[in-house]
Amino acid sequence: DTQQGSDLTAVDLQGRRLFETTSEAGGYTSATVEDPVAGTRTVWNSNNKEAKVLMLPAPVAHRQSCWSIPAEEQHFVRGEAQLGIRLITCQPAERDQGSYCAVHGDAVAAPRDDSPEAKPDYGDCSRALASVIISGKVFEKNEDLGVETILGHETHGCRSTVVLGNRTHKREAWYTKFGTARRNVSLSLRSVDEFPGPGEWTTRITSEATNLTFAEPVASVFLPPNDYAIKKIEMLEVPCKQASNPSLHAAPSH
Hints:
The protein is mainly beta. The protein has one helix spanning about 120-130; strands at about 5-10, 15-25, 30-35, 40-45, 50-55, 65-70, 85-90, 140-150, 155-165, 165-180, 185-195, 200-210, 230-235, 235-240, 250. The protein contains 1 helix and 15 strands; from the N terminus they run E-E-E-E-E-E-E-H-E-E-E-E-E-E-E-E. A hairpin with a 4-residue loop joins strand 10 and strand 11.
């Protein structure tokens, strides 16, 4: 059984990012937009015409602060887009923040002209694979696949083979990087995910970039469709002892 789909990623000079995926069989589309300028995360999908806009927290002066989405947003509701975030911890306002605690309205600084050009390396790829936790792991082998040109751009590849009892889970990825050493974007141009299913079934998911454009995207690409309702969601401050992970609790956003 073969299924096909397409993904779209867009990044602008102020750091806004769109991640959109579409299943060609069902015509289902889901999207996530990270906007560090407005201090928001927006999610939507084509199951219902509603976009959720999460207002990310602003750091508090002189102390650490912890934030939670409202309880009603922590439950999965079939058809609704999921925010993908439950808890966030911000450092005191005087300290550097992660992307989810940026001061609202502050644009991301432009890259400095004296920075050298960024180059992809094995670390970009291996960190991406290591960020996914695979349960039941008995043993893992990681390989550096070296350099390959994809769509005219230098990429660096890696492979992870995870042993799960008498089955294996294999993942491969090829990452390019563009920008400067001080400010850059690492982007996967090819990936393969092969994992065991029920019985003797094996599922293989292959993704490969078909187009890569270096131009400022139009602003509308970061907005939900015009006919979608907008639901704004404020995060609530909670005692930090409730946050078992001090930085970010994430879940699938779609």
